UniProtKB/TrEMBL annotation:
It is an enzyme of class 3 (hydrolase). InterPro entries: AAA+_ATPase (IPR003593), ATPase_AAA_core (IPR003959), ATPase_AAA_CS (IPR003960), P-loop_NTPase (IPR027417), Peptidase_M41-like (IPR037219). GO terms for molecular function: ATP binding; ATP hydrolysis activity; ATP-dependent peptidase activity; metalloendopeptidase activity. It comes from Aliarcobacter trophiarum LMG 25534. Its EC number is 3.4.24.-. GO terms for cellular component: cytoplasm; plasma membrane. This is Cell division protein FtsH. Belongs to the AAA ATPase family. Residues 147-283 form the AAA+ ATPase domain. The chain crosses the membrane at residues 12-30, 42-61. The gene is ftsH1. CDD domains: RecA-like_FtsH. One of its GO terms (biological process) is protein catabolic process. The lineage of its organism: Bacteria, Pseudomonadati, Campylobacterota, Epsilonproteobacteria, Campylobacterales.
Length: 493
């Protein structure tokens, strides 16, 4: 809109100039006509010449108005950070960067919306509230509702965290400020903090807007241990900035991390990143939707359901590479329809290529399914094939029995696998670590027992007993897990 206004003003000025020149010519001619006897030769010609020069200049300006307008807009754009050019940029191609020489923190306009994010329905629903807040702030302000300033997207790489953040900005039609955590960590002390300040200043200037900080752990790691002045001062500045702006300022900070456990507690406190959204590997339904999206404009004879089944463990980025490689093979073989053979070639490339993608074959998928099924059975909760972790009993004061139950939930997968397959597997190292951490708390902090190993052993024995007694039920659940990649509460009834 601002851009239109500028265009109109410049157009108006050109027209006025032309009109003034014409009026002057007429006036001058009239004066000469009326008093021709009093005008001396030379001054007559100078006057007429001057008027014609004026007329020619205005014609040239009119003809070159586009270039002149661009020149003035560029000048203005440099003065007030992207204010003018951003509007122009909004209507330009996907995600082009806005040119600003004054600040290196540049917003991009996101044309990506939730339509471009396939699957992960629950996550999109969670973020719709933020979009609505950015679109209709008064609806929330009226009831004095404060929305979170910070949303933390937690999940492994390549699952679409950046894409989701962009889609939120695109849905709300607000500027999107992208920065990676690593880019804040500079060599010189104070530079990172300055960059954080500039980022927030720019975002506030362009509010409503979204700041996205990718891999926030690079800057947000817990303080302490080996001191790193630069990182600490950057983190402190980030905390100060997050406290400094009001919830209704229209700036929402979205950050992404793979390792929430390493983040400084201060970042996770209320008023900072207090909303967390977990983005896991895509499940079978998600994978199907993602494949359908990628193959939208392609003719194919492949079975998408089968491909979704056989690509468990793939993240969205890997699925995109798979389709791309398959299309390359199709083109190479001069075909116009994508076939199963192209997919096979692409899979091989991914499996043995530089960026090795671990593909879960039928046997590996069964191992994972048994592992996750035992977790679901023991914790009596919904567990997906590709989920990490397990829900724990979460109370202020836990009893001995409840802590032991939490250890069992962590160990259910490994114990179940050993029981059913009669073999040990290299799976669940994080869960084992967590089980030992709980046991250590019980011994060292709460003095509930004497020996960690004893506690672990008693949890394992109890698990073996319980799983053995329900082995048929677990076999049934495992089949469901293989088919649906999830066990729901209804399945457990
Ligand atoms: P992350 O930020 O989690 O590392 P990205 O958002 O960078 O992941 O996504 C990696 C790639 O996968 C991008 O090319 C993105 O377009 C694609 N992608 C990720 N998730 C989805 C999805 N749900 N639907 C469609 N494409 C996706």
């Amino acid at each position: 809109m601002k851009q239109d206004l500028n265009d109109k003003n410049i157009d108006k000025n050109f027209k006025l100039m032309l009109l003034s020149a014409l009026v002057l010519v007429i006036l001058f001619s009239y004066t000469i006509y009326k008093s021709s006897t009093n005008i001396q030769g030379l001054s007559y010609y100078i006057g007429i010449g001057f008027l014609f020069v004026l007329l020619i200049i205005s014609f040239i300006l009119r003809a070159k108005q586009d270039k002149i307008r661009d020149y003035f807009l560029k000048k203005r754009g440099n003065k007030s950070l992207n204010e003018v050019s951003f509007e122009k940029e909004l209507s330009s191609s996907k995600g082009d960067e806005v040119v600003s020489e004054q600040s290196f923190i540049k917003p991009v306009a996101s044309n990506i919306t939730f339509k471009d994010v396939a699957g992960i329905k629950e996550i999109k629903e969670e973020l719709e509230e933020i979009v609505d807040f950015l679109n209709n702030p008064s609806k929330y302000q009226k009831h004095k509702v404060k929305l979170p300033k910070g949303v933390l997207l937690v999940g492994p790489p390549g699952v679409g965290k950046t894409l989701i953040a962009r889609a939120v900005a695109g849905e709300a039609q607000v500027p999107f400020f992208y920065q990676s955590g690593a880019s804040f960590v500079q060599i010189y002390v104070g530079m990172g903090a300055k960059k954080v300040r500039e980022l927030f200043d720019s975002a506030k200037l362009n509010a409503p807007s979204i700041i996205f900080i990718d891999e926030i752990d690079a800057v947000g790691k817990a303080r302490g241990g080996k001191s790193n002045d630069e990182r600490e001062s950057t983190l402190n500045e980030l905390l100060t900035q997050m406290d400094g702006f009001l919830g209704d300022s229209g700036v929402i900070v979205i950050a992404a991390t793979n390792k929430i456990e390493v983040l400084d507690d201060a970042l996770l406190r209320a008023g900072r990143f207090d909303r967390r959204v977990y983005v896991g590997l895509p499940n079978i339904e998600d994978r199907k939707k993602i494949l359908e999206l990628y193959l939208k404009d392609v003719k194919y004879s492949i079975n998408i359901d089968k491909l979704a089944q056989s690509s468990a463990g793939f993240n969205s980025a890997a699925l995109s590479t798979l389709v791309n490689e398959a299309l390359l093979s199709m083109i190479k073989n001069k075909k116009s329809i994508l076939e199963e053979s192209d997919i096979e070639i692409a899979k091989n490339k991914l499996e043995f290529g530089k960026k090795q993608q671990k593909i879960l074959d039928i046997e590996q998928k069964e191992i994972l399914a048994i592992y996750q099924t035992c977790k679901a059975y023991i914790s009596r909760s919904k567990v997906k094939l590709l989920d990490d972790g397990v829900p724990r009993i979460n109370k202020v004061f836990l009893s001995y029995g409840e802590m032991l139950e939490n250890i069992k939930r962590e160990l259910a997968g490994t114990v179940g696998l050993e029981l059913i397959k009669n073999e040990k597997y290299s799976i669940g190292e994080d869960a084992i670590k967590r089980a030992y951490e709980i046991a250590s708390l019980m011994i060292q902090d709460y003095k509930m027992a004497q020996n960690i190993e004893e506690i672990i052993k008693s949890a394992q024995d109890s698990l073996k007993d319980e799983l053995m007694r329900n082995i048929d039920n677990i076999a049934r659940l495992k089949e469901l897990m293989l088919k649906n990649e999830v066990i729901t509460l209804e399945d457990l009834q």
